[in-house]
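User: Can you recover a sequence for this backbone? Please restate the input before giving your answer.

Assistant: Of course. Working from this structure:
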């Protein structure tokens, strides 16, 4: 199946029937106590419920600013039968996820949520000729997870690997039971056969360590002569963890890198021998980039951060739920309420960023050109549920980006100008760039 067909089949079509409306919190919950803030009683923004397709696009990518300007940083939306509270802006999201971390740390169960994720396309790399980057980036990034899990890497042409990538990606996109079964069977066959050559004194991968732990726990049960359930170190959990790491760690990182290359094509003066490539030449030279180089490369570090801020690849965050009754900004929110801490509203918060809607690496540089951390930089979210893979992802982004720009200059295909390059995000659970091609010109 080609990229076009898959992209056409991706999307929220099954939910057209589902209607959504946006309300202020007051219409969601009646006040029940005098300590609770008094809500306005007429606050319905859209009496004609919006179809969820429209809502996803507008709410998550731009309209949140207008909604929050009109209704404040905390408002509720009605998605079918489900009331959901949306939190917008750096201060409010930080107040919930960081200052009241425990109360906002639960996850709701939303079976259909996964279906909104992005697509997967087939393509091939052909240096010199224009090419599409999805498959090659996914393959490169997935091999990092494979290395951690298995201490090996797959050849990009290996049919088993191609099938694995397809299964993982389709699984993010669609909840296909058949795929999940095949993925789990694959993990069983490929990963758990590890057990045969397991050496306690030479643990080289995550799966080695997991299986050793499993054996130790079972041994201790036997010694204690107790019948206990091994709550964590059982095969079902191993399969789930492996599937989750692929699901969460591949598309996010590879999509960010694809945004990075697109932005370098759009802004050649930033990519150029005077900026990123100049810094790479000065600090790394022709040796292999290492993570220790990062502190000596403030401009490149700032560009990678700005790519993440601008690309805003998980605009809606993953959904949270309140673990207890809680009061936020004076609003009472009952336990078990679905919460969307909107990351796009933090990454584009006008009170936090000088040029929130522009690609502007100077957001992360001081007047002396030194790298500066920014509190509103939250692409990985914050608090107790923040991304588990943040450190790994940051390392990968720096190393892949630096290596690619060390070796190549990225340009639009012949006949396409910088102005033609479209920075509008494609809509999905993660926002990837619109399908595009690029040319990689070897630098040496
Ligand atoms: C650029 C790359 C990445 C971005 C932008 C990203 C972003 C996120 C975000 C926004 C969340 C939701 C946090 C929340 O609910 O508050 C999340 C969760 C998660 N991420 Fe990442 N992520 C990235 C890469 C990775 C990688 C490389 C891995 C693992 C290898 C990973 C593993 C996870 C896991 C396991 C969760 C769920 C944590 C939980 O439920 O407690 N992510 N990520």
């Amino acid at each position: 199946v080609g990229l076009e067909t898959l992209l056409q089949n991706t999307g929220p079509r099954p939910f057209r029937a589902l209607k959504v409306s946006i309300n202020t919190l007051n219409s969601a919950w009646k006040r029940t106590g005098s300590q609770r803030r008094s809500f306005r009683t007429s606050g319905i923004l859209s009496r004609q419920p919006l179809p969820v397709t429209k809502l996803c696009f507008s709410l998550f990518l731009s309209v949140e600013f207008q909604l929050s300007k009109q209704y404040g940083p905390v408002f509720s939306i009605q998605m079918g039968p489900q009331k959901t509270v949306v939190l917008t802006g750096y201060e409010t999201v930080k107040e919930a996820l960081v200052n009241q971390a425990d109360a906002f740390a639960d996850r709701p169960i939303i079976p259909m949520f996964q279906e909104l994720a992005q697509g997967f396309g087939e393509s091939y790399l052909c240096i010199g000729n224009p090419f599409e980057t999805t498959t090659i980036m996914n393959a490169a990034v997935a091999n990092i997870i494979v290395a951690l899990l298995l201490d090996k890497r797959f050849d990009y042409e290996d049919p088993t690997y191609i099938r694995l990538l397809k299964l993982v990606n389709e699984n993010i996109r669609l909840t296909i039971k058949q795929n999940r079964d095949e993925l789990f069977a694959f993990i069983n066959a490929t990963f758990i056969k590890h057990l045969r050559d397991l050496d306690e004194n030479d643990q080289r991968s995550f799966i080695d360590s997991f299986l050793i732990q499993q054996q130790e726990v079972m041994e201790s049960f036997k010694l204690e002569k107790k019948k206990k359930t091994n709550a964590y170190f059982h095969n079902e959990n191993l399969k789930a963890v492996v599937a989750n790491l692929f699901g969460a760690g591949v598309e996010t990182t590879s999509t960010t890198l694809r945004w990075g290359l697109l932005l370098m094509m759009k802004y050649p003066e930033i990519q150029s021998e005077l900026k990123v490539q100049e810094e790479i030449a000065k600090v790394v030279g022709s040796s292999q980039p290492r993570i220790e180089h990062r502190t000596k490369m403030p401009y490149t570090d700032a560009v990678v951060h700005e790519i993440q801020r601008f690309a805003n690849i998980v605009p809606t965050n993953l959904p949270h739920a309140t673990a207890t009754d809680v009061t936020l900004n004076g609003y009472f929110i009952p336990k078990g309420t679905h919460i969307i801490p909107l990351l796009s509203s933090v990454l584009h918060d006008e009170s936090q960023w000088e040029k929130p809607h522009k690609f502007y690496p100077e957001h992360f540089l001081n007047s002396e050109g030194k790298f500066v951390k920014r509190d509103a930089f939250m692409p990985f979210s914050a608090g107790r549920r923040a991304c588990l893979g943040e450190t790994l992802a940051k390392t990968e982004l720096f190393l892949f980006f630096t290596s690619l720009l060390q070796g190549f200059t990225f340009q639009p295909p012949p006949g396409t100008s910088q102005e033609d390059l479209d920075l509008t995000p494609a809509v999905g659970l993660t926002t990837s760039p619109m399908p595009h091609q690029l040319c990689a010109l070897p630098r040496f």
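That completes the design. The pocket of protoporphyrin IX containing FE is lined by residues 145, 244-245, 248-249, 252-253, 256, 313-314, 317-318, 320, 379-381, 385-389, 392-393 (CB under 6 Å).
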